[in-house]
Structures are given as C-alpha cells and as structure tokens.
Amino acid sequence: MLNRVFGWLYEIHLAGRRVKGWNRKVYYALKYSLTAVVLGLIVASALR
C-alpha cells in the first residue's frame, strides 16, 4: 500500500520538476497557490 502511495506522490513530484524546468514563475505561483488552498481547507475544517 505504501509503495502505491509513494509512487503516486513521486509522479506529482516529477510533474512539479517538469513545470519548474519549463517556467519557474509558474512553478512558484502553483506551489504557493496550492499551499494556500491546503491551509485554507485545514482552517475551514477547524472552524466548522
């Protein structure tokens, strides 16, 4: 089970590296946007 999870996470990692190689500004925009969304979801679930 862990191998499947880490395999999936590794695919996401490789996609991020491809984006970063293509365009660093887009990479950082996506990175910070996704971080903000995840933190927002955590805060929203805590306030329920």
Keywords:
2 helices, 48 residues, mainly alpha, single chain
Task: Describe the fold and architecture.
By secondary structure, the chain is mainly α. The protein has one domain. It is 92% helix and 0% strand. It is flat, with a radius of gyration of 14 Å. It starts with a helix and ends with a helix. 0% of the residues are buried. The model has no long low-confidence stretch (mean pLDDT 96).
As a whole number of angstroms, the C-alpha radius of gyration is 14 Å
Q: Main β-sheet, in a few words?
A: none
Helix and strand succession? HH
What percent of residues adopt helix (DSSP H or I)? over 70%
Could you say which overall geometry the principal axes of the C-alpha atoms support? Answer: flat
Domain unit count: 1
What count of helical segments does DSSP give?
Answer: 2
Average pLDDT taken over every residue:
96
Strand content: under 5%
> Structural class, from helix and strand content?
mainly alpha
Unreliable spans: none
- Total number of beta strands: 0
* End-to-end gap: 31 Å
Q: What layout of secondary structure does this protein have?
A:
Layout: H1 2-22, H2 24-46
Would you summarize the structure shown here?
By secondary structure, the chain is mostly helical. The chain has two helices and no strands.
